[in-house]
Specification:
Structural class: mainly beta
CATH topology of the largest domain: Immunoglobulin-like
CATH architecture of the largest domain: Sandwich
Radius of gyration: 27 Å
Number of domains: 2
Strand content: over 45%
Largest sheet: 8 strands, mixed
Amino acid sequence: MTQPIGRQLLLCAALAAGLAVPATALAQDPTPPPDTTPPVLSAVSLTPALARAATGAVLHFTLSEPARVGGTVQRKRTGVRTKGHRCVARTAHRHGPPCLLRSPAGSFLAAGAAAGANQAKLGLARLTPGDYSLTLTPVDLAGNTGAAARVGFHVRVG
């Protein structure tokens, strides 16, 4: 640790004396700055959008840099808006304006997605028929979290 401090003292003394200092001597530490740019997730799609539970679906997405991509699956149902402006499940005694109710149905983590185009096979065998949404969130190796992207799909019988 004394070597960089000694180097700085010599440079300061040379500059104070009015001596010419080569540009390479003024160069900063070669350590690159930390990564603060979050990964960008784009072109998210699921094929087929009308998937069968038995065969599953293929998820396609593009990343700006290598990252881990986590996903949460939520089931979409029609609920009822209460007087307190909450969205709750519809029952025989609950009536009111309709709203979109999302309930957790599963999650996953794609361990090592590369920069550029990626694809992953999703098994849908544990999901009951209905409408779902998949929310993906990328996190790069430096821990920066990118903006989430959501894609909807429908699981049918057979």
